[in-house]
Design the sequence.
């Protein structure tokens, strides 16, 4: 498989601090941040458009922590697919024509949980959701253990 065309032109800029900036801009938000993809998509899209306007050609989906397992304590497990699909669609719509979407995956809620079937299933489902929406590649963020990332 050939690399996306985005990698053939330098410099290559990516977005940054998406979750932190969204948290600051949505101080009244009490749900997991990825749920903004579904319930306040305009906030996510506005920030992604700002990154694109500043020259970013790599945009992250706002999906770190958007597994059914991580959303379940907030009553949102059944919305995991929709939250991931929205995250991908929002990034894609803000992207420049010569850009790529990074499907963002985060670590398990507790280090070492990777060997538990519930975590493996939740992470696999998220990979499928993001793959089905056409992300260009995956970005694994904030993993502190190689075993969890593998």
Sequence:
């Amino acid at each position: 498989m050939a690399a996306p065309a985005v990698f053939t032109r330098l410099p290559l800029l990516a977005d940054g601090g998406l979750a932190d900036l969204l948290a600051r801009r949505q101080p009244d938000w009490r749900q997991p941040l990825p749920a903004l993809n579904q319930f306040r998509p305009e906030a996510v899209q506005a920030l992604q458009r700002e990154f694109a306007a500043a020259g970013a050609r790599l945009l992250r989906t706002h999906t770190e922590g958007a597994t059914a397992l991580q959303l379940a304590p907030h009553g949102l497990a059944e919305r995991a697919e929709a939250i991931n699909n929205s995250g991908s669609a929002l990034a894609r719509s803000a992207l420049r024509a010569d850009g790529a979407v990074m499907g963002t995956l985060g670590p398990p809620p507790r280090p070492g949980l990777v060997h538990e079937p519930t975590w493996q299933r939740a992470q696999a489902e998220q990979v499928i959701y993001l793959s089905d929406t056409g992300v260009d590649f995956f970005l694994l963020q904030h993993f502190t253990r190689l075993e969890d990332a593998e």
